[in-house]
């Protein structure tokens, strides 16, 4: 996992919704930035999609930037390709850009391991949280709440320290390209 305190690695990727290249600087929020590694096919992502949309709507107005990145090998999973990313973003009304990491360099820079994988950076782009959204999983009966991300964002809003006890993300592994 990326070490707490790490500066957010910079990037410039294609937003599949607006069809424009966006950089980290374009997307950062005045209070902090949430970077989510997701994809279309993963049942763990499908399970939390509605909560990440709610989360973004709740916190964007408070000064947080949100961005989703898909880094999967689209040859192995064509449903994760940009045309389907656009479709899913529209269908689910994503209130954030959905970026395509074709060469997987951004996922590697962030040490992303799975989908979904969440990173919260403060206003100076220092990592304060990395890990899971909450304790909900497909079929475990626990409702999605975004608890751990909400706690981190609330701590930033209230000038409190984000708890260091953080649970790693769980989900589908990122589908790395084979060369």
UniProtKB/TrEMBL annotation:
The protein's superkingdom reads Bacteria
Q: Can you name one GO molecular function term for this protein? A: oxidoreductase activity
Where in this chain does the record put each Thioredoxin domain? 2-158
Q: Which InterPro entries match?
A: AhpC/TSA, PRX-like1, Thioredoxin-like_sf, Thioredoxin_domain
PROSITE patterns (UniProt xref): THIOREDOXIN_2
Which residues, by range, are in coiled-coil regions?
none
The record's listing under PANTHER family reads: OS07G0260300 PROTEIN (PTHR43640), THIOREDOXIN-DEPENDENT PEROXIREDOXIN (PTHR43640:SF1)
The name of this protein is Peroxiredoxin
């Amino acid at each position: 996992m990326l070490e707490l305190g790490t500066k957010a690695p910079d990037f410039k990727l294609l937003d599949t919704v607006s069809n424009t290249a966006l950089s980290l600087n374009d997307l950062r929020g005045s209070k902090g930035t949430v970077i989510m590694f997701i994809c279309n096919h993963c049942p763990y992502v499908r399970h939390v999609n509605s909560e990440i949309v709610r989360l973004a709507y709740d916190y964007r107005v408070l000064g947080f930037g949100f961005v989703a990145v898909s880094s999967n090998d689209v040859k192995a999973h064509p449903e994760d390709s940009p045309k389907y990313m656009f479709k899913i973003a529209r269908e689910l009304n994503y209130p954030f850009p959905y970026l395509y990491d074709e060469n997987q360099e951004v996922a590697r820079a962030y040490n992303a391991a799975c989908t979904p994988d969440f990173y919260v950076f403060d206003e100076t782009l220092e990592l304060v949280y990395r890990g899971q959204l909450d304790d909900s999983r497909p079929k475990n009966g626990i409702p999605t709440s975004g608890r751990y991300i909400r706690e981190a964002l609330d701590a930033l809003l209230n000038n409190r320290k984000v708890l260091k006890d953080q649970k790693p993300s769980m989900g589908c592994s990122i589908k790395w390209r084979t060369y």
